[in-house]
Amino acid sequence: MKKYLILLFILSFTLINCEKDDICIEATTPKLIVIFYNDSIPADKKKVDSLTVWADENGKIYENKLIDSIVIPLNLTQNSTLYQFKSGALIDTINFTYDRKDVFVSRSCGYKTIFENLQIESRSANWIKNDTIKNTTINNETAVHLSIFH
Question: Are the CB atoms for 138 and 118 separated by under 8 Å?
Fold first, then answer.
């Protein structure tokens, strides 16, 4: 009988000390969503021919793509990110500035960064004609943050 009590005690102690598996299934730090539009007809999306996008710290994210929307990360350690957008032989640079806010998601996911007060500090105008910031807060990847007209 004493053996069964000891076995029951050990089994109970083992079950009490087990932790549930921590697997992160929630969204983490969101990226900037950009959609390209026709400058002549602003309501129409327009694909960019041979689009290449890069930031010095990230390297090339897209290379020679025929695409009308992109998702790009912002720098997590600074309050600005400089991106270069190349279409054909023309290159435009856009310097994004923002405020970073770290938010605790869960024990398994840790923290994510939300970007607030998104602004375009500077932009060249070689093939990009105009831009419009749709959402100044980047806290998810379900809404468009920036429209670029070319």
Answer: yes
Candidates 66, 60, 59; CA nearest to 87 is 66
Decide if 30 contacts 114 (C-beta within 8 A).
yes
Closest to 96 (Cα-Cα) out of 58, 49, 42, 150: 58
Q: Cα angle at 112 between 94 and 108, to 5 degrees?
A: 150
- 30-44 per-position pLDDT tens digit: 999 999 999 999 999
Closest CA to 29 of 94, 69, 77: 77
pTM check: above 0.90: no
Residue 38, number of CB atoms within 10 A of its CB: 15
- Residue 42 gets which letter from DSSP? T
